């Protein structure tokens, strides 16, 4: 039940007659990477821990993800002799996260102080945090030394080497699900009490305004769980809370690939505590297949890589609008272009168009298995969202039909009358760029990460390299579209991996009130609190990397917390 439909308080003043159902030193809400690492390190340091998870299965969005981690100053980098400067690292993140504020000679590079402090703590602790998880066998990783950063900027003086991915028991590259399973096994071995299907809806505070526990529903009844030292919110954002996304994001997203339980349950609690919210209109952006998002498909995965070479993306007028190979977070921003003359978002929905060669070349098993979010069906298979037309005109008709089917969700988008003819002109211009090997409009394929995602310097490369094709380009991200059909297409919409707004935290991961003071006994990390990343998606793994680091930092501070006073409240059925 949504809190918007209840009158129950989210902040409960402690009474002496309360009966606690269980207690522990630390109560952690959420079993994704943020919560799990906090719990693992807390237990490793001797604290007792109860974990509460809203879903019936652990892991949240972390379990759906690839599990990649951006870990600056990691042991694998250092073993290769790549020692990164902290100031260079912070300057890089400031440059991409706050480009309008970035000031090279400022002590914080123009960052707000809280963001600078968090990024500094991230750099100082990331390598040690990863190493300790490996020592505990709570995580196994593989170093991908050649993975480039997401933006080519001069401030990034070490654009490769920070990235690691989960590794399975056979030593193969794995994913978030595998990593979460290993963490859950470690939590069990450490004696952590994990309670699934438990939705937290309120916090308890004592007369000193210290957070001393939480209330929630375990699927059977309301329960009160005491936290002797601290409560840690390490839960997800509000991707699937439509009223919240409408309020804070102005209807800019149609959905996202976060876990379906990410409905912003921490927001009413934060509001009840009077905590200011930050970054509420920002997110870890990613395009999504429009109709799949409208269907509420829980298996929805973001379109991480707009696959293909003989393909382009156009808006409702049939004009090409952006570099199709820019990474997912930045590519999503092209959907938000506002035309003040026409008073519309002409790019809100975008239309991918490709030829048969592209459909076949990038729909084979090997490439699909290694490129998450590829919307091209496997050769021989179909998708209800992947459209086909014998001609460009017929494909345009298919697009128009789908827009009419979902007119209420289309944000006013309908194809221009001359869409097909303008599309043909756009293809002719694109084909010219492909033949010359240079995209003069949007510079497609000219950064290291764009070529990496195309498989040009790693194992993703398609098996056929067109060695005998006379039109093989200087830039292999480009290839002319065929003059003959059939043509294929899909509709993309702006979405999110998850939101990244909420209360601010300090470098100890304590949640801050409106006077920038820590709320006693309350910690936060993960997508439920404000991110220090500004407008950026720093690089691959920029959620897992910071969150496993912040879990390490939070645990060290939590175990040093004094026990919070709860009067004569009784414990009725501890750990029961």
What does this structure look like?
It is a single chain. This protein has 16 helices and 19 strands. The strands form four sheets. Strands 1, 3, 4, 8, 9, 10, 11, 17 and 18 form a nine-stranded mixed beta sheet that branches. By secondary structure, it is of the alpha/beta class. It folds into two domains: 11-282 and 500-571, FAD/NAD(P)-binding domain, CATH 3.50.50; 286-494, Alpha-Beta Complex (Flavocytochrome C3, Chain A, domain 1).
Work out the count of structural domains: 2
Question: Termini distance?
Answer: 25 Å
Helical residues, percent: 25-40%
CATH topology of the largest domain: FAD/NAD(P)-binding domain
Largest sheet: 9 strands, mixed
CATH C-level name of the largest domain? Alpha Beta
Q: How many extended strands?
A: 19
Low-confidence stretches: 1-6, 456-468
**Share in β-strands:** 15-25%
Tell me the overall shape: globular
CATH architecture of the largest domain: 3-Layer(bba) Sandwich
Helix/strand-derived category reads alpha/beta
- What value does the average pLDDT take? 92
What is the number of helices? Answer: 16
The CATH superfamily of the largest domain appears as FAD/NAD(P)-binding domain
Task: Name its key features.
28% helix, Flavocytochrome C3, Chain A, domain 1, FAD/NAD(P)-binding domain, globular, disordered N terminus, single chain, alpha/beta, nine-stranded mixed β-sheet, 576 residues, five-stranded antiparallel β-sheet, 19 strands
Summarize the SSE layout with pairings.
Blueprint: E1 11-13, E2 19-20, E3 22-29, H1 33-44, E4 49-53, H2 60-64, E5 69-70, H3 75-79, H4 86-97, H5 113-135, E6 141-143, E7 163-166, H6 176-189, E8 193-196, E9 199-205, E10 211-217, E11 222-233, H7 242-249, H8 266-272, E12 283-289, H9 290-294, E13 311-314, H10 328-332, E14 350-355, H11 356-361, H12 365-370, E15 387-389, H13 392-405, H14 419-436, H15 448-453, E16 487-499, E17 510-512, E18 518-524, H16 544-559, E19 570-571
Parallel strand pairs: 1-9, 2-19, 3-4, 3-11, 4-8, 11-18
Antiparallel strand pairs: 5-7, 6-7, 9-10, 10-11, 12-16, 13-14, 14-16, 15-16, 17-18
Helix pairs in contact: 1-6, 1-16, 4-5, 5-16
